[in-house]
């Protein structure tokens, strides 16, 4: 939505720049490109401060003595599998156990739940905490049947956002926080729009521009926002995706995603989609199999100002918000595609990959997810379960080494006629290899199975793979000699 607004402004003649920080918000605004370090000035009759939770830092550039009006509040959200909510029904409860609002909504074929509301420091990198995640999970349990187990391991992604709650400096009651917006004008003429929310952005923009026109004697006609369509809306229709399927040979799910995301611009994405080489779909290679995002969106994202891998996984697609592990798996391919478009060298590719992994690890909940299984995790299994899992482990550890490697897994898979790419196998084992020594030890496997039983970990590929292999091998009973005709 933010991108659509910026692109629409550009279509109407606005000059836009991302990854740019302001050094001094005077009539000659000093700016710096944070990617290149290049500095430049922008001349303006009027400067508007619309920086959300960073409102006060910009106001203090204008006047160091001005009191703060912004009270940042952290709101954590989590994403869970789609089966936790009906497709077309959401739930909102304004009276939870501690008075906070909780919502539970279907989103992008998943379930989004939130939110917390607690004071926080302003940062560009907010991090969700385990405490906040568990609060949401505990509240969610109140709305589901007793037969539905809400598991910590079902949290696919988690993030924290910062709400810019404000006090009105012109109000007598300056202590009360408002979720509405406030427009103020400093002695030097800096206009600040603070507070508010996405759903009222047009009213916020109208009030801000009206104030700018009035305070700075600007020439302008009447407000044009009512009925003004955003980028991509002009040629959109509910059946647009059918033309994408028919004209380009895209999968129906991918076509629906492109139509709802890009509107009429979806055809521009489809035009640059690669041929798959399959009978169907004809074009549109997915970044990850379970989500409708295709490689062409990375190329198109670069054309729409994307400059980092984080831009693609979080600001051009929703992959990081829907499944942090899937985003992690898609990163190498995303970086390769962007490198061709932006002429990155090998060092730049490495830096982009590491930066994006750090973003997923801390800001999108990968750390709190992986913390559910550590080398200090308790093993709380019944003796019978321990013996059962040891037996399963020994099916792979034929040499009784006390650990299994990729070669051990490949040998078992080969015996049951299953093939898995070596890189994929490496990732599967790495999820459980807690001490990162390239092998999974018996104790690590027991810790995994204990965490699975407790619901702290779900969807472990190694656990499912080993169970499936055990079942297939178990069905291969040896034929008795008497039934084989005596043998030779």
TrEMBL record:
Enzymatic class: oxidoreductase
GO molecular function terms listed in the Swiss-Prot or TrEMBL record: calcium ion binding; glycerol-3-phosphate dehydrogenase (quinone) activity
Keyword Phosphoprotein: no
Coiled coil regions in record: none
EC number assigned by the record: 1.1.5.3
Function statement: Calcium-responsive mitochondrial glycerol-3-phosphate dehydrogenase which seems to be a key component of the pancreatic beta-cell glucose-sensing device.
Primary site of residence: mitochondrion
Pfam families reported for this sequence: DAO (PF01266), DAO_C (PF16901), EF-hand_7 (PF13499)
Domain EF-hand: 384-419, 420-455
Cofactor(s) listed in the protein's UniProt record: FAD
Organism: Hirundo rustica rustica
Gene Ontology BP terms: glycerol-3-phosphate metabolic process
Keywords attached to this entry: Calcium, FAD, Flavoprotein, Metal-binding, Mitochondrion, Oxidoreductase, Repeat, Transit peptide
Protein name, per record: Glycerol-3-phosphate dehydrogenase, mitochondrial
SMART domains membership: EFh (SM00054)
Localization in the cell: Mitochondrion
GO cellular component: mitochondrion
